[in-house]
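# step 3/5: fold
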Amino acid sequence: MEWLKAAEFQYNDKKHAVTEHILFKLNFGRHLWKGNLIVQIEFLKLEEFLIRLQRSWEEATKSMEIAKKTIKKQFDKKRQNPQGLKTEDNMWLKAKNIHLN
């Protein structure tokens, strides 16, 4: 199970491709502690901390929406309606491969 914790640590310590933020920082508002490293931590007032955290969440949400639209656009390129059919259109169905009891 130790390898699972290491994998989780590595995943949470990298910038996400879509949000461009480190996931741990998005959740907790600070960078992940890495053991013996001396890290300067800036202690903010609670209001400032919450404002920064909210701002980073908003940026991540915007990035995810942009990525969602881009993925949908790429998906829809290959799924077009060549016959121009609409939901209300009627059509004939061949009964060749339909077997009823």
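# step 4/5: annotate
The radius of gyration is 25 Å.
# step 5/5: archive (pending)
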